[in-house]
């Protein structure tokens, strides 16, 4: 048996996931059908929204100095939940990305990340 907490809504139902005699997955503890959907996704295809910070560079390609009042890192996030097993690979790619300032919230820093239908975008405007 596996225990999960459904994070689909603030109720946070405690789910128990088991298999019946026929090998069918059985979910209990959910207050609505979305809990069962959540449990299936979490077990067979877990995904997470990924947040990270990329290196910021000035328009001339140099790093922001202490006197520039600009941060050295730019917060980014995926536009949708990303397959959990591929997150380390995604972070490796993001470590190599620099973001030129100024930058607006929502600017795409990585399109179709690792071939998925998910982009990585800037989550806060900086200097824009
Ligand atoms: S099972 Fe339904 S009610 Fe419970 S946390 Fe999930 S979405 Fe909310």
Plain-language structure description:
With 128 residues, the chain is α+β, with helices and mostly antiparallel strands. The chain folds into two domains: 43 residues, no CATH class; 76 residues, CPE0013-like fold (Roll). The protein has a five-stranded mixed sheet. The termini are far apart. The model has no long low-confidence stretch (mean pLDDT 95). The structure holds iron/sulfur cluster.
What is this structure's SSE topology?
Layout: E1 2-5, E2 14-19, E3 25-28, H1 33-44, E4 47-48, E5 51-57, E6 73-78, E7 82-83, H2 87-95, E8 98-100, E9 108-110, E10 120-122
Parallel strand pairs: 5-8
Antiparallel strand pairs: 1-2, 2-3, 4-7, 5-6, 6-10, 9-10
The structure holds iron/sulfur cluster.
Organism: uncultured spirochete
Protein name: Molybdopterin oxidoreductase
InterPro entries: CPE0013-like_sf, DUF1667
């Amino acid at each position: 048996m596996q225990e999960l907490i459904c994070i689909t809504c603030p109720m946070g139902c405690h789910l128990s996931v088991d298999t019946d005699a026929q090998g069918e997955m059985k979910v209990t503890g959910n207050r609505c059908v979305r809990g069962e959907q959540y449990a299936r996704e979490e077990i067979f295809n877990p995904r997470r929204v990924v947040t990270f910070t990329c290196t910021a560079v000035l328009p001339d390609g140099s790093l922001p100095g202490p006197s520039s009042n600009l941060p050295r890192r730019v917060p980014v996030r995926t536009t949708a939940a990303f397959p959990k097993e591929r997150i380390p690979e995604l972070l490796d790619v993001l470590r190599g990305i620099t973001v030129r300032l100024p930058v607006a919230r929502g600017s795409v820093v990585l399109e179709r990340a690792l071939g998925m239908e998910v982009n990585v975008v800037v989550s806060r405007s900086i200097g824009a």
